[in-house]
Amino acid sequence: MRLPSAGLAALALGLALAGGALASDAADAQAVVDTEAAFARRAAEIGNVPAFREFAAPGVIMFLPEPIVATDYLARADWPGRIEWRPDFVAVSGAADLAFASGPSRWTVKGEVDPGYYITVWARQPDGGWKFVLDRSTPGTPNLYAAAEGPATVHTGVAAGESKSTPAGLEAVLADALSRDAPGAIGRRMDPAGRVIRAGAAPATTPDAVRALLARDPAEVTASYLGGAMSSSSDLAYVWGETRWLEEGQPRRGHFVRLWRRSGQAWTILVDHQVALPAAPSPAPLPVKD
What pTM was estimated for this model as a whole? Predict the structure, then answer.
């Protein structure tokens, strides 16, 4: 699958280039799209898990549904049926060393289709190729894969100097705000082109849709940063971690993945992805003595 060059050009960030600044371009974004397409083809040719092993970086993080270093898991896993996917959103750092891709997927087993929406973080390798360092799915989404395929939304990056922030530092400031007003904390930091991804819904890609989807989130959340990395151009960073909140007085838990992008010294959230773990079953009632 090739992404139309017109779509790449029209949907690039359009940031002004400073003299000597690192900047990615349509060709870098196309390389990520081509890698995604090659990955999907290999899954059809050699099977789901062998393809994942082939494209995974050492120490890859996968959410199954808990986050794990999945290298050993992939060595012994067996996923039946066929998994298909395609990217509809791609972001590449200015140094073209870190990228993010997301899009619709479907897993077909014995005629039964399980639709989803995946997110993948890619890291450039010493040989110039790409391997994924984080992968997770979004359960319960509409079957967006069945819709007509269109050009992906693409964001290329540029960096003009070292950032004063770190992934952990970005999340520490955000975590404080999440504990008081989680939807507002995310909303105020969303990039104008940002998107919100939640289980059971299509991704929110417009400001109105973002506000509506965030309004369904818990009011107060405790977020714990567990990992992430920043591009060498200091303009793109991904983070992942755990969230905890109360729902009808009962403790709940889930995980987040966020993609931050920088313009000047300002960081905004380009992608906010959160999925709740299944609620713990209620304890059995104690026996009543006569």
Answer: 0.89
